[in-house]
């Protein structure tokens, strides 16, 4: 019986030990690009290399073979890895950073084929980055977790900014889930795989796209999450932080678990989770947030946003707090009042505000520096940032000595004074003035701070001087003026005297004990001493020992910083608060804003309101000044509910600007800012809805009109009597009468059911008749003036209704050919005379474009009046089957067919 010979693997195709290690580590991190450390480079192999080379625009090479195929490879230098990480993270990739975790010398001891031990020390994801280069100073970088408990309706969101340590949690519902997520604007959202694949949530995750990461459901188990969070904070229960629902515990624990998974052995200094009450913030749905362009334009830019227009902050923490207040305005009049008091205080005390801003200018970001240090990826400059931040805090606090302060300002100053002075003094004494970027370079500890370090630096930097000083001391001690201290590669440092001085060097027991004989030459003798041997060892190891001492000092300072984390966070928050208040005061003074009155009424009265973004844009363009307008949606005398304005007027007349400016004034007032108006009285708005502008959603199969109807439906289903609704041109995306009917019904519903304050802009002039039927509805219009056939847009809002939209005039201004404009005027005149009512068919024959198309078509057969009359005379419900059959034959004959 013949036996088949066993097939032996081809040694040439077997993976090398290094490649075996790479494959093993990569298999444990399949969803991340693996940055595999090899010397001074991070290398990527196989598909990771192909993906990275395309994304980063770097050369793809190869290294050896695997299973008979070339192994694709590319790499990036370690010293510039942050630049490449920034690009990869921006494209939505995740990166596993694999470092050497042992000294290469140890690997050599195990054998020639042994490889240096490596392991993933960190997973870099969009929501867990801390590097200064990868973060925008004025933007938070949130990781968010969505918690849901099976069988329960409640949902919860927990969000962490690992770069600052902030940790918040809030309950939510399916209806407002997307709005709450967009309010926070996380860089990454994690959720359980069953939730990710649940059709109920599909629309939400489609909007968020690659920012969503599905994870195993075990990470979201509420019981396990509670235990995980307790271990993280070193407590047996989270009850001391607040009573959280199961969904909230799921979100909290999942967020912590993901941080632990990505940061490996390092632990960020997170604050305990704090519940945020959704009712305490102004609800702004996603469409409204996009239309108003609060912090991002529709194209994703910050340029042209409300944030850009009002931002006068000087620190990263201040800019982030301003953005947070802008995206989550308060609904608590007392809280808003405290913020406004602080802004008014700085506006009144201009010299004090200037002093605070001078001290804040250039202040580093303490929170992000602290986070990097705690995660073992910080450097000496991060310690320097803490020192500079604490010095700025002390300088700012000193400016308020002896002053009567409003509540928010007083709380902030108290936070500054809570900083541990001993730590600030310690950093000041320990750190040099000029600090290097990397701790491995040394040189960041101040001279005089550590005696041993000073000695090692002296030996390292001034070995010749130290040897010369010892030589002089020995000459003085022995009286041998020819004594020299020399050096060679065999003996190292030695003392050399001529032979005739032998008696001095060896003549007594004490001399023999002091001077140790090393070598006798023909006319000289060489000795050493215990001190010289020790000095030689110190000189040889001085550089290494100096760096080791500095690293020990660095670690001690980091430990002290982490221990002071709570006080540092309090001070950083206080600096941010003062920065925002002083900045808003500067804004109000520069732009001539007023302090709004904000209370729990249903008032909405703005006198001479302006659009904050457009006004500044006009000024930059040296254009005509912005035209201010009043808006009064307050309840009329005898009414319990706010008013609705029906706004008509021409295109280009300023309707959209007027709509948006009133929405933005409400946002600014409730965030605690002065507003662009002469006066403003805003009764708290609980929900803000805006439907302004038109766009389609091709990815989800929605036309412009469908998007408009979906957004309008959301408004009509959610607006309350405290809401402010801004609607522009509802119904314009469909047939005229369809659109008019929808707009008409929507206004009636807002008036009768929602009972809200609203501005409804329309080109359907027929709707102005509603003012006679609906008591809370008033007609207002954008004023225009006609002059010699041209139209002048006054951009003024006044009472009354427009009689037309001046679309043809706007078309001429846009540059349409004169022939088109002239023909349009003719058609418009005929349409207006005939009131459109079904007689437009005659116009088609007069239009050259359409009449030519008609002439090319085949002539249709003449209408058969006898057949039409016979069909009309039939009553199918009253006919027997036989009568019906006979009728069919008759109709066939009338139609010209055979019986």
Account of the 3D structure:
InterPro entries: DNA_mismatch_repair_MutS, DNA_mismatch_repair_MutS-lik_N, DNA_mismatch_repair_MutS/MSH, DNA_mismatch_repair_MutS_C, DNA_mismatch_repair_MutS_clamp, DNA_mismatch_repair_MutS_core, DNA_mismatch_repair_MutS_N, DNA_mismatch_repair_MutS_sf. GO terms for molecular function: ATP binding; ATP-dependent DNA damage sensor activity; damaged DNA binding; mismatched DNA binding. This protein is involved in the repair of mismatches in DNA. It is possible that it carries out the mismatch recognition step. This protein has a weak ATPase activity. ATP binds at residues 649-656. Strand 14 and strand 15 (492-498) form a beta hairpin. Helices cover 46% and strands 17% of the residues. It has seven domains: 11-124, DNA repair protein MutS, domain I (MutS, DNA mismatch repair protein, domain I); 132-276, Nucleotidyltransferase, domain 5 (2-Layer Sandwich); 311-420 and 564-590, Orthogonal Bundle (MutS, DNA mismatch repair protein, Chain A, domain 3); 451-552, MutS, DNA mismatch repair protein, Chain A, domain 3 (Orthogonal Bundle), CATH 1.10.1420; 592-813, P-loop containing nucleotide triphosphate hydrolases (Rossmann fold); 816-856, no CATH class; 865-894, no CATH class. It has a seven-stranded mixed beta sheet with strand order 13-23-24-25-21-26-27, sandwiched between helices. Strands 3-4-2-1-5-6 form a six-stranded mixed beta sheet, sandwiched between helices. Strands 11-10-7-8-9-12 form a six-stranded mixed beta sheet. The protein is α/β, with parallel strands linked by helices and 899 residues long. Helix 8 (222-233) crosses helix 9, helix 16 (380-399) packs across helix 17 (407-417) and helix 19 (451-461) packs across helix 23. The chain has 34 helices and 27 strands. The longest helix is centred in the middle third of the chain and has 34 residues, at 530-563.
């Amino acid at each position: 019986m013949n036996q088949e010979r066993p097939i032996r693997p081809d040694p040439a195709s077997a993976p090398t030990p290094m490649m075996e290690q790479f494959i093993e580590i990569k298999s444990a991190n399949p969803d991340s690009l693996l940055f595999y450390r090899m010397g001074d480079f991070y290398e990527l192999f196989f598909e990771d290399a192909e993906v990275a080379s395309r994304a980063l625009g770097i050369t793809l090479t190869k290294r050896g073979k695997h299973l008979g195929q070339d192994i694709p490879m590319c790499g990036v230098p370690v010293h510039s890895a942050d630049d490449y990480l920034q690009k990869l993270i921006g494209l939505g990739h995740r990166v596993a950073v694999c470092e050497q975790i042992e000294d290469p010398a140890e690997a050599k001891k195990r054998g020639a084929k042994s490889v240096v031990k490596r392991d993933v020390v960190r997973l870099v994801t969009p929501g867990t980055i801390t590097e200064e280069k990868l973060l925008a100073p004025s933007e938070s970088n949130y990781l968010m977790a969505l918690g849901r408990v099976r069988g329960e309706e409640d949902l919860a969101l927990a969000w962490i900014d690992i770069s600052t340590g902030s940790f918040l949690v809030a309950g939510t519902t399916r209806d407002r889930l997307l709005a709450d997520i967009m309010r926070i604007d996380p860089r990454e959202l994690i959720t359980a795989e069953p939730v990710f694949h649940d059709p109920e949530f599909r629309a939400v995750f489609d909007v968020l796209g690659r920012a969503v990461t599905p994870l195993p459901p075990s990470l979201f188990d509420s019981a396990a999450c509670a235990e995980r969070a307790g271990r993280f904070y070193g407590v047996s229960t989270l009850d001391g932080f607040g009573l959280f629902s199961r969904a909230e515990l799921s979100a909290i624990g999942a967020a912590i678990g993901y941080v632990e998974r990505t940061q490996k052995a390092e632990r960020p200094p997170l604050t305990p989770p704090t519940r945020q009450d959704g009712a305490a913030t102004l609800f702004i749905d996603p469409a409204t947030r996009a239309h108003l362009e609060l912090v991002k334009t529709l194209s994703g830019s910050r340029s042209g946003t409300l944030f850009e227009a009002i931002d006068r902050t000087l620190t990263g923490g201040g800019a982030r707090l301003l953005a947070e207040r802008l995206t989550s305005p308060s609904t608590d009049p007392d809280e808003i009042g405290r913020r406004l008091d602080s802004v008014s205080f700085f506006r009144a005390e201009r010299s004090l505000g200037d002093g605070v801003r001078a001290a804040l200018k250039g202040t580093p970001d303490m929170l992000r520096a602290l986070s990097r240090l705690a995660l073992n990826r910080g450097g000496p400059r991060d310690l320097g940032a803490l020192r500079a931040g604490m010095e700025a805090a002390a300088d700012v606090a000193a400016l308020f000595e002896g002053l009567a302060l409003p509540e928010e300002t007083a709380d902030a100053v108290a936070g500054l004074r809570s900083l541990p002075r001993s730590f600030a003094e310690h950093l000041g004494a320990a750190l040099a003035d000029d600090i290097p970027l990397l701790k491995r370079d040394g040189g960041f500890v101040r001279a005089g701070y550590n005696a041993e370090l000073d000695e090692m630096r002296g030996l390292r930097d001034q070995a010749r001087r130290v040897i010369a000083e010892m030589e002089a001391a020995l000459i003085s001690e022995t009286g041998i003026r020819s004594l020299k201290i020399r050096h060679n590669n065999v003996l190292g440092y030695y003392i050399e005297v001529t032979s005739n001085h032998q008696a001095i060097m060896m003549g007594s027991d004490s001399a023999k004990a002091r001077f140790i004989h090393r070598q006798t030459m023909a006319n000289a003798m060489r000795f050493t001493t215990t001190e010289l041997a020790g000095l030689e060892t110190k000189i040889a190891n001085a550089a290494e020992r100096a760096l080791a001492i500095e690293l020990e000092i660095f670690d001690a300072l980091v430990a002290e910083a982490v221990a002071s984390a709570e006080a540092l966070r309090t001070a950083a928050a206080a600096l941010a608060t003062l920065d925002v208040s002083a900045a808003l005061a500067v804004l109000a003074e520069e732009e001539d804003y007023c302090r709004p009155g904000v209370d729990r009424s249903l008032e909405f009265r703005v006198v001479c309101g302006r659009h904050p973004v457009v006004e500044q844009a006009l000024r930059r363009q040296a254009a005509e000044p912005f035209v201010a307008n009043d808006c009064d949606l307050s309840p009329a005398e005898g009414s319990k509910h706010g008013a609705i304005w029906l706004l008509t007027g021409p295109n280009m007349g300023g309707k959209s600007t007027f709509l948006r400016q009133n929405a933005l004034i409400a946002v600014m007032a409730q965030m605690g800012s002065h507003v662009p108006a002469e006066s403003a009285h805003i009764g708290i708005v609980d929900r803000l809805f805006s439907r302004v502008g038109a766009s389609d959603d091709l990815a989800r199969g929605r036309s412009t009109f469908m998007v408009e109807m979906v957004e309008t439906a959301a408004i009509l289903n959610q607006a309350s009597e405290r809401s402010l609704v801004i609607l522009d041109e509802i119904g314009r995306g469909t047939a005229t009468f369809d659109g008019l009917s929808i707009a008409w019904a929507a206004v009636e519903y807002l008036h009768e059911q929602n009972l809200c304050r609203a501005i409804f802009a329309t080109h359907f002039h027929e709707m102005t008749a509603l003012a006679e039927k609906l008591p809370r509805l008033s007609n207002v219009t954008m004023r225009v003036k006609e002059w010699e056939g041209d139209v002048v847009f006054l951009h003024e809002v006044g009472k009354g209704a427009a009689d037309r939209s001046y679309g043809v005039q706007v078309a001429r201004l846009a540059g349409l050919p004169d022939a088109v404009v002239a023909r349009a005027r003719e058609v418009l005149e005929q349409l207006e005379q005939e009131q459109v009512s079904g007689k437009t068919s005659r116009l088609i024959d007069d239009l050259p474009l359409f009449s030519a198309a008609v002439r090319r078509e085949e002539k249709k057969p003449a209408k058969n009046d006898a057949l039409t009359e016979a069909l009309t005379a039939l009553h199918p419900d009253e006919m027997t089957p036989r009568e019906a059959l006979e009728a069919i034959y008759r109709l066939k004959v009338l139609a010209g067919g055979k019986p």
